[in-house]
């Protein structure tokens, strides 16, 4: 007889194969089951299987209840950026793309967490002397560069001294001028400041260069070194591939997580930066799924946080004597409907402001002009200052000098600033002040307009920073080039307060000083402060850990990139504590 394809055919055979264990607790139950008729035995079998499955599922659910979900390593993020990099070097980076790559591949003594607070990175600790002029840092014993060599105090001193070298022409020269750096031992570095300067800790986020790589490179060779394109740093990611098109133009960078990063291996395995010629191309790539993330492109679900920047029209009475009149400056500021500007020109991606501090800071903002009466208030300010409107000519005329009020507004020929300038022009002309626009190429604006202070009214922006320091922009010492006091503003009381604020640590006292500075500057109307722009960052829904609060530069979005993650896993709490 042929063998049946199944090893059993009857219910009795099935139940026999699945008998309960014969140890004592199950003996009685086993006898009971054997006494049942075949059909009942089959039902008991099915129930047993169901009970077993439910038990396993319950145990799994119980296990999940007590386990913790934590980030897991792995995954790739592809991000689109406008513009190709030139100098991936913390001392030479000038473009936003340069700074993006520097932020990912280099690390400083300190860095920032997701909230923007300063945290140790290459340094494990630091101390500050009582007088605020001596800063001593201790390096982590595990701090390494991507080529495996340890980060030492000599590397830190070399980097600072190179930043101070006028022959290199680093944009960071002013930040490190008059600061002495010395290596106490291999893991200890000391900085001596000429006087107390509380924001100095921000400067210690400077990416550290490996001395053994760069010490033999001359200033002339620095920009052209292969390490400027393929860096060796101590940051969270390392460069694996640089992609170029047929003309040799860089089109992408592939980065891999650095397993020996001082604060721990990043969760993302890879980040790829793809470069685009313009914003339109980037937006198309983002919406088409070519890239997963990008900043400056508003899509549903994008993160929106304020920039630590203030844009406004800065008045220069030295070039345009009409603007020496406080009444004129006040009227021109009151005439601008900032809320309409933000809504109609900036699409709502900004916050109207009337003071030198960006919105989102810890200091209360200056009250905005009343949008319902702003033009009438502006006219009243001119009349109070001795100006009379000549209806025949359609001009404001000074009763004493007979001078007519006309202005030229200069700015950069980029879409956003051009549109804002046109809105300001419209408001000023509604006030009765004829206004001519002069648009300049960004480089030309810097060299031919801003540096020689060749403007009466200039629409421009100031990067105040996430820990505000207004000294460079409003102290009278910065009125001439290369200073940044582009309003040629001078107020001895404000000068004293600016110095005081620089020496104060973050806290209520410094906030009160900054509030006093802001109130005094706003009352002098050296500029018509307009808005703080928003930083818009679109990331995929599956990317976790991106929690921006405020940024001063686009590269700030990578502050905490080592803690971004795409995947998660379940672990027992006691194992988590043991591993940490």
Largest sheet: 12 strands, mixed
Structural class: alpha+beta
CATH domain fold name of the largest domain: D-Maltodextrin-Binding Protein, domain 2
**Percentage of residues in helical conformation:** 25-40%
- CATH class of the largest domain equals Alpha Beta
CATH architecture of the largest domain: 3-Layer(aba) Sandwich
Sheet-strand content, in percent, reads: 15-25%
- Form type: globular
Count of distinct strands: 22
The termini sit apart by: 67 Å
Low-confidence stretches: 1-18
Mean of pLDDT? 90
DSSP helical segment count = 18
**CATH homologous superfamily title of the largest domain:** Periplasmic binding protein-like II
Radius of gyration over all CA atoms, rounded: 33 Å
Descriptive account of the structure:
The chain is of the alpha+beta class. It has helices at 11-17, 27-35, 38-66, 96-105, 153-164, 173-176, 200-203, 211-214, 279-287, 326-334, 338-344, 374-384, 415-431, 442-450, 471-474, 492-503, 508-524, 573-579, and strands at residues 68-72, 76-82, 110-112, 118-120, 123-128, 134-139, 180-185, 188-192, 237-244, 250-257, 270-276, 293-295, 303-306, 309-315, 350-352, 387-390, 395-398, 407-412, 435-440, 457-463, 527-538, 567-571. The strands form 5 sheets. Strands 2, 9, 10, 11, 12, 13, 14, 15, 18, 19, 20 and 21 form a 12-stranded mixed beta sheet that branches. The protein has a 4-stranded antiparallel beta sheet with strand order 5-6-8-7, covered by helices on one side. Strand 9 and strand 10 form a beta hairpin. Helix 1 (11-17) runs parallel beside helix 3, helix 10 runs antiparallel to helix 12 (374-384) and helix 16 (492-503) packs antiparallel against helix 17 (508-524). The chain is globular, with a radius of gyration of 33 Å. Mean pLDDT is 90; it is low at 1-18.
């Amino acid at each position: 007889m042929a063998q049946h394809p199944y090893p059993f055919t009857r219910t009795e055979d099935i139940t026999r194969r699945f008998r309960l264990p014969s140890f004592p607790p199950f003996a009685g139950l086993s006898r009971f089951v054997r006494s049942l008729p075949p059909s009942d035995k089959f039902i008991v079998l099915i129930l047993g299987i169901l009970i077993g499955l439910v038990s396993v599922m319950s145990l799994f659910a119980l296990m999940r209840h007590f386990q913790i979900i934590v980030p897991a390593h792995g995954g790739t993020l592809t991000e689109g950026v406008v513009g190709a990099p030139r100098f991936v070097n913390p001392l030479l980076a000038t473009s936003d793309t340069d700074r993006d790559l520097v932020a990912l591949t280099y690390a400083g003594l300190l860095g920032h967490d997701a909230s923007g607070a300063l945290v140790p990175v290459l340094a494990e600790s630091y101390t500050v002397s009582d007088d605020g002029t001596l800063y001593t840092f201790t390096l982590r014993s595990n701090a390494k560069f991507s080529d495996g060599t340890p980060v030492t105090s000599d590397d830190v001193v070399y980097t600072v001294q190179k930043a101070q070298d006028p022959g290199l022409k680093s944009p960071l020269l002013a930040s490190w001028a008059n600061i002495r750096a010395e290596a106490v031992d291999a893991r200890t570095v000391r900085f001596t400041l000429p006087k107390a300067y509380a924001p100095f800790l921000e400067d210690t986020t400077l990416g550290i260069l490996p001395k053994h790589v760069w010490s033999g490179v001359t200033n002339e060779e620095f920009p052209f070194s292969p390490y400027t394109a393929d860096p060796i740093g101590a940051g969270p990611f390392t460069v694996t591939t640089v992609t170029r098109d047929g003309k040799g133009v860089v089109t992408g960078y592939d980065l891999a997580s650095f397993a020996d990063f001082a604060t721990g291996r990043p969760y993302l395995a890879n980040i790829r930066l793809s470069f685009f010629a313009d914003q339109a191309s980037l937006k198309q790539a983002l919406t088409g799924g070519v890239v997963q993330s990008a900043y400056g492109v508003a899509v549903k679900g994008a993160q929106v946080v304020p920039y630590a920047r203030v844009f406004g029209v800065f008045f220069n009475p030295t070039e345009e004597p009409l603007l020496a009149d406080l009444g004129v400056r006040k009227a021109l500021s009151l005439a601008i409907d900032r809320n309409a500007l933000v809504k109609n020109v900036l699409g709502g991606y900004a916050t109207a402001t009337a003071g030198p501090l960006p919105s989102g800071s810890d200091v209360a903002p200056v009250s905005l002009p009343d949008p319902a009466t702003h033009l009438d208030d502006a006219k009243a300010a001119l009349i109070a200052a001795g100006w009379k409107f000549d209806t025949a000519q359609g001009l404001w005329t000074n009763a004493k000098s007979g001078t007519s009020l006309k202005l030229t507004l200069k700015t950069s020929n980029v879409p956003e600033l051009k549109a804002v300038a046109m809105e300001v022009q419209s408001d000023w002309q509604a006030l009765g002040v004829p206004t001519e626009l002069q648009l300049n190429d960004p480089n030309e604006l810097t060299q031919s307009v801003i540096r020689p202070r060749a403007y009466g009214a200039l629409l421009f922006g100031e990067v105040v920073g996430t820990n505000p320091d207004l000294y460079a922009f409003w102290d009278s010492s910065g009125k001439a080039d290369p200073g940044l006091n582009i309003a040629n503003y001078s107020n001895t009381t404000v000068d004293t307060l600016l110095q005081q604020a620089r020496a104060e640590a973050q806290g209520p006292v410094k906030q009160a000083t900054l509030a006093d500075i802001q109130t005094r500057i706003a009352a002098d109307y050296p500029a018509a402060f307009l808005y703080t722009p928003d930083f818009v960052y679109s990331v995929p829904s599956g990317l976790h850990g991106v929690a921006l609060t405020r940024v001063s530069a686009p590269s700030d979005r990578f502050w905490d990139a080592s803690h971004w993650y795409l995947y998660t896993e379940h672990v027992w709490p006691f194992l988590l504590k043991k591993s940490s």
